[in-house]
Amino acid sequence: MNKIGILTSGGDAPGMNAGIRAITRTAINNGLEVYGIKRGYQGLIAGDISPLKTTDVSNIIQRGGTILKTARSEAFRTTAGRATAFEQVKKHGIEGLVLIGGDGTFRGATLFSEEHNIPVLGIPGTIDNDINGTDFTIGFDTALKTAVDAIDKVRDTAEAHDRIFLIEVMGRDAGHLALFSGISCGAEHIFIPELKEDMDQIIQDISNNRARKKMTNIIIVAEGDEFGGANKLDEYLNEKIPELDTRVTILGHIQRGGTPTPNDRILASRLGYHAVIELLAGRSQEMLGIKNNQVHYTPFAQCNRHDDDIAKDWREMAVVLSK
Ligand code: F6P
Fold first, then answer.
1. Which of 195, 156, 152, 151 is nearest to 173 (CA)?
2. Is 320 within the bounds of a domain?
3. Are residues 201 and 268 in the same domain?
């Protein structure tokens, strides 16, 4: 193998740049030429591909976003789109790919690698932490810190006004950001898609809190929870207890930006380094993750996460600790 390509795909995540840097420098150190593919699969199809040198990845380890840019490509979902992408791969003489992205990225990679004979490895980059085969995804730790900083600030004003705040965090259909930020901030309630809430009990808890003059409640709502986010839950609660003084804060895309935490930089550096070594050793169609501080390999097809048991265990703990 002489030339490899790198792309970032799906939602950007802080630490992707640290991954690009690690992949580029490890590859160059092993005598490979490296090509950066812009805007994920979209750029692969369009042939938006150019060489990456060691200096191109200088001074990026501390930057959020991705210097390669990213996109969600509809065309790559089609056989024809993937065939065009492979034409570009051949044209540039690329013999292996390292991808940074989420489960959608790896679903596309499985098909691409099966239809066309090219080795592909992936490393998990998403703030959602919704990928099987790794304890944490690149970007989750930074997004969690951003959410926690914001929620702590909201609690100050909530306390000052004796208000209930519903704070919506990202995560698509996964509740990891909500669960972890809720535990970190001592949230009174946490709504996550993995678990159904006993709403009678929650109404009772809020009423009991008011009776004992505990007026401030921080309720963390995952954007993908059963109500469909914080605004809907707010409507429901106000219908049930009309005298509530509630406010809704939607944290939104600030959770995706900002300088990556040291943990995210280290995770991305380790995974990027090992991805190149393993690609050269002949591995393909697998995602590298870190489990119990060891590098772990998961076939792309098994990267979808179903962590309901962990969610239940952790959520029970959160309920006990918030009382
Ligand atoms: O997957 C990362 C993520 O930020 C999710 O948490 C969120 O649901 C989604 O991307 C938002 O996507 P977009 O930026 O395309 O609106």
1. 195
2. no
3. no
